[in-house]
UniProtKB/TrEMBL annotation:
GO molecular function, one term: GTP binding
Naturally occurring in which organism (per UniProt): Macrostomum lignano
Residue ranges of every copy of the Tubulin/FtsZ GTPase domain listed in the record: 326-512
InterPro entries per record: Cyt_B5-like_heme/steroid-bd, Cyt_B5-like_heme/steroid_sf, Epsilon_tubulin, Tubulin, Tubulin/FtsZ_GTPase_sf, Tubulin_CS, Tubulin_FtsZ_GTPase
Alphabetized UniProt keyword annotations: GTP-binding, Microtubule, Nucleotide-binding
The Cytochrome b5 heme-binding domain, residue ranges: 86-175
The protein's name in its UniProt record: Lipase_3 domain-containing protein
BP term (GO), one: microtubule-based process
Family membership noted in the UniProt record: Belongs to the tubulin family.
Residue ranges, annotated region (Disordered): 513-544
GO CC terms, sorted: microtubule
Pfam name, any one: Tubulin
Keyword GTP-binding applies: yes
Keyword Coiled coil carried by entry: no
Length: 544
């Protein structure tokens, strides 16, 4: 059914209703009397009658049931929205998710949110109002503006749309921003597709100019190399010989190892590995584990941790050089003016703490592709964090962790920071721990867990701690417990001493403890000798 905007939409809808009424009346007359002389014909008419009845009910509800109260048709015309109604023959029920003005039948759909991994699919209440609308809500409306999206986001959007077009059957149209009444693509849609195709072409060209390095493990350290072989003579090179470099891909906002030709070694998008000669054909570089900050507690301590790391570096390096010490916690982006990015993944099922980080002075330090948030929170419930959010965000978590791990030249362990009393920290934190065990079984998993105090105001914290302990026992190689009461005591003593410097809080005390343990780990890596074991540093599973 082709629906026109404004007044013609109502005309077409009235025609549809009239046709439906006539068909319903005809079937109602013929079925009881056995009319048309054929039971087979009756059986063929009945599905058509039910199908038209459903379409009439759906379109009439949308065009007339809400237009008198909210001007639905006028809003639809103003937004110039393409409207597809899709029918899922397997589910036999209508649930709608609008993508690029396209409405699909989906099961228990949820809106994407701005700032997340899939912000190009955000709904009408998000910062880019084009993708989704709730056709069943009283306040539902359509919008479909793609302006401001990057080429990568447009490519993702069209890929997602192709997936749904291959799975669902289109049964209705309306004219809009993307298609003419004849269903031909508009210049606007062709322009957006051209931008997506241009991005894919540039990405393909980059993959050709900067192919990924090969990698192997020697004596527990990762060695990256090019040209398909190790231990090549650097004095016997050919014009097509390639050299390993850190490459920043601005299209995907990621960095990794790439092999570059000799005349491309000065390209601004590449950088030499630390402690590696510019003419080396293979490099071995040690990197610390990427911290995974989970929940409100983990991110509050983490925010002070990164602030403390930058302050300490500034106190000893007045020129702000990027040295080995700073490289322990940060990485450089060669394509972005040598900007610093923290080696971290930030996870929280509420946006409060992470949102404050993105608004504060450290907002440029965090990679937005490594931020995973939700809006409703875990309600201080271990099961919600572990079972519900652990499954819902498993793919996004896996992808963010993979990107962070690829930035480590020698991935030896993961470092988790979370609380044991909250729902997200205890539940989702242990779900991430299990994910790491499944996907990186040979990489050690270190956990800094903040345990609740006896007078904790969260009544479910003891239960959350008990449930999380089983997962720590099964999946963690080493747990470094922190007592929340001790952190509060340290913060109180600092406050009583009259110090007003940044860090006079429990979060700052926790950050100092975490940074001390990171320093111990770093010294151990550089010296090759085990450091003194700190108080509370206890392995929970047998050493491998």
């Amino acid at each position: 059914f082709l629906l026109q905007p404004e007044s013609t939409m109502r005309t077409s809808a009235w025609c549809l209703l009239l046709f439906g009424a006539l068909l319903c009346g005809l079937v109602a007359v013929l079925l009881p009397t056995g009319g048309l002389g054929s039971a087979g014909l009756t059986r063929r008419l009945l599905p058509a009658y039910l199908r038209v009845h459903r379409l009439v009910a759906e379109f009439s509800r949308q065009l007339f049931g809400r237009s008198n109260k909210e001007g639905f048709a006028e809003k639809n015309a103003q937004n110039s929205c393409l409207y597809f109604l899709f029918d899922d023959t397997q589910l036999q029920r209508n649930r709608h998710l609008s993508i690029l003005g396209t409405v699909f039948d989906v099961s228990e759909s949820a809106f994407y949110k701005p700032g997340g991994e899939y912000e190009q699919f955000t709904g009408r209440d998000a910062s880019r109002n084009f993708a989704t609308s709730d056709t069943g809500a009283e306040s539902g409306s359509f919008s479909d503006n793609l302006d401001g999206l990057s080429g990568a986001q447009l490519a993702d959007l069209f890929e997602w749309q192709r997936f749904y077009f291959s799975k669902y059957k289109c049964v209705g149209y309306s004219r809009g921003r993307f298609y003419h009444p004849s269903l031909l693509e508009t210049d606007y849609l062709r322009g957006m597709k051209a931008a997506a195709d241009a991005h894919l072409a540039r990405k393909s060209q980059l993959a050709e100019n900067f192919p990924p390095c090969d990698a192997t493990t020697i004596d527990g350290k990762t060695v990256v190399y090019c040209n398909g072989a190790l231990n090549l003579d650097p004095n016997n090179v050919m014009p097509n010989t390639r050299y390993p470099r850190i490459f920043y891909n601005k299209f995907d906002a990621t960095s990794g190892c790439a092999c570059v030709l000799r005349d491309m070694r000065s390209d601004g998008r590449v950088a030499v590995y630390e402690a590696c000669s510019p003419d080396a054909l293979q490099c071995t570089v040690l990197r610390p584990p990427p911290p995974l900050q989970v929940g409100q507690c983990g991110n509050q301590i983490g925010s002070r941790f990164w602030d403390l790391a930058l302050r300490e570096h500034a106190s000893v390096s007045r020129r702000g050089d990027f040295d080995d010490s700073l490289g322990t916690f940060f990485r450089q982006q060669p394509g972005e003016g040598q900007a610093l990015k923290a080696r971290a993944v930030l996870v929280d099922m509420e946006e409060g703490v992470v949102g404050e980080l993105l608004k504060g002075r450290l907002r440029g330090v965090f990679d937005h592709s490594a931020l995973i948030t939700d809006v409703s929170g875990s309600g201080n419930n271990w099961a919600v964090g572990h079972c519900e959010y652990g499954l819902r965000h498993r793919e996004a978590l896996s992808e963010s962790i993979r990107r962070c791990a690829e930035q480590c030249d020698c991935l030896q362990c993961f470092f988790l920071l979370h609380s044991m009393g909250g729902g997200t920290g205890s539940g989702l934190g242990t779900a991430i721990l299990q994910l790491l065990r499944d996907q990186y079984p040979e990489v050690y998993r270190f956990v800094t867990a903040v345990y609740p105090s006896e007078d904790d105001d969260v009544i479910t914290s003891p239960y959350n701690s008990v449930l999380a302990m089983r997962c720590l026992t099964d999946y963690a190689d080493c747990v470094m417990p922190i007592d929340n009461a001790c952190l509060a005591g340290i913060a109180q003593r600092v406050q009583d001493s009259g110090r007003t410097a940044a860090g006079s809080s429990a979060a700052a005390a926790g950050a100092a403890a975490v940074k001390g343990r990171q320093a111990i780990r770093r010294d151990e890596q550089h010296s090759g000798q085990p450091a003194a074991e700190p108080h509370g540093f206890r392995p929970l599973s047998p050493a491998r």
